[in-house]
Amino acid sequence: MNTLMLIYETDNISEAVTKAIVEVVTEGKSMKKLKTLFPYVGKKPPRIAMEVVEAFRQSGCKMFVDLFCGSLAILCYLPEDTKVVVNDINGDLTNLYVIIKTKLVEFITELEALPYSEVLFQMYKEVLRSDDKASDLERAVAYYYVQFASFRGRSKNASFRISADADNNTASTFRKNLPAIMALSDRLQTVEILNRDFRKVLSQFNDASVFVYADCPYLGTEDYYECEVNRAVYVFGDNEHKDLAQMLKEHKGIFALSSKAKKD
Predict the structure, then answer these.
(1) Would you say 123 and 132 are in contact if contact means Cβ atoms under 8 Å apart?
(2) What is the 3-class SS of 180-222, one letter each residue?
(3) How confident is the model at residue 6 (pLDDT cuts 50, 70, 90)?
(4) Same domain for 118 and 3
């Protein structure tokens, strides 16, 4: 925050962040697209994301529902005037997006004070595992830190990501993510963020005007996405795959499904 206040010649943190956001929004949008904030298992590359967005455009649907939103890779390519609903069963993930959307200044202030450190990585892993007293803001900081610093984006049994060669500097990238967080906050202002079981979302948005994108856990990799729901471990299993297939078949609108066959 001190750097931003110096750049924008103000001693007001909120004013400095607001000016930075305006700069990102008015200048950055024409130069580059939104970007995802951290590595994430199953994150779709630009080619696939653009194919999904093109399918949505051709469908004529008015609303885009990202059923398993993950890192928000698809949102980065959707037109800004699209009504978008993003959903994920992982409450820590959706809480992070809500905090970025509604408490940007506080979130960035917390991050700006943190070094890139394995000590903090381990501490925040413990916060996510056991600290029921942590506020939504504290959990958002902890989740972002752990997810960003996790090797290959693996949340389960995560190991600390380091820069193994002179051309990459993960600590520097951690600092340089600030504009991306600001740009995402601006984009999320018109996005509905849900934290629900996919079956409930499909039931609620079963309409011909709705395009559903389902990037569910792939067969055989479901344990990569384990999370806690109502104090119990949630795993997307065979029953979930069957329910998803049936509900997509009955969906009144258009859907796109990312999946692959299970290896023997």
Answers:
(1) no
(2) HHHHHHHHHCCEEEECCCHHHHHHHCCCCCEEEEECCCCCCCH
(3) low
(4) no
**CA-CA distance, 263 to 257, in Å (whole number)?**
18
pLDDT in tens, 177-217: 888 999 999 999 999 999 999 999 999 999 999 999 999 98
Residues 5 and 133 in one domain: no
Residues 130 and 173 in one domain: yes
Mean pLDDT along residues 94-111:
96
Question: How distant, in Å, are the alpha carbons of 42, 88, 97, 123, 180 from that of 189?
Answer: 25, 18, 10, 31, 15
Q: The pTM is what?
A: 0.84
Question: In this model, does residue 83 exceed pLDDT 90?
Answer: yes
Domain that holds residue 8: 1-32
Helices (H) and strands (E) in the chain, counts: 12, 7
Count CA atoms closer than 13 A to 204's CA, side-chain side. 11
Q: Which stretches does DSSP call E strand in 51-161? A: 63-66, 83-87
> Does the residue 263 lie in any domain?
no
> Are residues 70 and 160 located together in one domain of the fold?
yes
Q: Are residues 130 and 246 in the same domain?
A: yes
242 with 137, same domain: the answer is yes
Structural domain total, the chain: 2
57 contacts: CB under 8 Å, gap ≥ 6? none
